[in-house]
Amino acid sequence: MSVADPAAVERSAIRKVSWRLVPFVALMFFINFLDRTAISFAGPNGMSKDLGLSAAQFGLAAGVFFIGYIVLEIPSNLALHKFGARRWLARIMVTWGIVSLLFTWVSSVNGLYALRFLLGVAEAGFFPGAILFLSMWVPARHRSHILALFYLAQPLTIVIGAPVAALLIDAHGLFGLAGWRIMFFGVAIPAILIGVLAWFYLTDKPSQASWLSAAERDWLSTELEAEEQQKGARAALARHGSPLAALTDGRVWMFSLMYFGLIYGLYALAFFLPTIIGGFETRFGTHFNVFQKGLITAIPYLPAAFVLFLWSRDATRRGVRSWHISLPSLIGAVSVPLALQMGSPSASIAVITVTACAIFAALPNFWALPARFLSGAAAAAGIALINTVGNVAGFVAPYVTGVAKDASGSYQLPMLIVGAMMLMSAVLALAIGRTRTRASLEPAQAH
């Protein structure tokens, strides 16, 4: 087949982007999610006892990260749009790696709060910046596929990260440090190293990519420029690419609340699942060592990675539709309160696995929608706003979960709240699908 064939050039260009950029940015995301959730492994494995944390204090420490994250999210994403993704994402990663390293020596509750807040400040803008960066490399019809490959890093962080964290914790006494402190040290160093590498590895836009052929660079640049122009005809919001227009658009706020519900479920599960598994000893009389707990924590996320990929593949083939988000959200809303009603550890983990699959099926398909009607600086501001409002749930979910657990004495009430938040996301997905039927039915090409 001739390389001059447009279809061949398209396949080749998307394949190169998929292999060159997505795995590296996914690795950055892997380290990002591991660093921000490392506290969930440290808590039940010595940190809560050593620092004297209640469930509410642990939840506040987990959630205060998002206060700093939220404050600087939009300014950080606008800075990325101005200075370029290569420089800005590398800067973010090195900064959060340095802050993560300091957790090795935290010695008080207030010190833990302060470092979690600073970690949020350091990480601000990374996730929406990565979404924006990848969205600027592929046309809309390929975007859900690319974002699905990127999002695989999130469940795989737990699949791989939980056992690795357990092994680091089991190295108790190394350098005279408690195991949970060694774990913080071990997950911080890769962030610094990969952040430095990102400065030299990433490329800001297709026209600068020496690893693409001239035909591939021209095709990507032409397709993306044409798509930006088409967005102007699709929505008044995109005509001017105005950040202010994005911040006051009703659809952006609907997406924000939808994302809030999904993220509430994600972080309630991520921060408290190791603690819930630790509680199996009391509920069921079972006993697991640290490494076994790490493996059990990883169980729900491996099927979730497969479901994420297959569900997003279907969305890529059909075009992302509202039910690609509403159906898994509804399944999660029903399953998560049922998890703690089960009569055995295996049954509880099985239902939690269904919840994890539901959350990760919805998330990458969600992000394929906002980029359809936002462009330029409006995309930077709008995507950052959606992620900012959604990540308020990152603070609310662990804190409310901890307070509700302390108040009720169990995790059943907190999980009912998670179910309600995911039900809200399901309803909003259906509502936005009714108002955006034409965009939701946008055809997609498999490659």
Automatic annotation (TrEMBL):
Q: Which UniProt keywords apply?
A: Membrane, Transmembrane, Transmembrane helix, Transport
- PROSITE patterns xref list: MFS
Output the SUPFAM superfamilies linked to this UniProt entry: MFS general substrate transporter
| Annotated membrane topology | Multi-pass membrane protein
Database matches in Pfam families: MFS_1
Q: Which domain of life is it from?
A: Bacteria
Identify the species of origin. Paraburkholderia podalyriae
Q: Which residues cross the membrane?
A: 21-43, 55-76, 88-107, 113-134, 146-169, 181-202, 257-278, 290-311, 323-340, 346-367, 379-401, 413-432
Where is this protein found?
A: Membrane
What is the protein name for this chain? MFS transporter
- Which InterPro entries is this protein grouped with? MFS, MFS_dom, MFS_trans_sf
**What residue stretches are annotated with the Major facilitator superfamily (MFS) profile domain?**
21-437
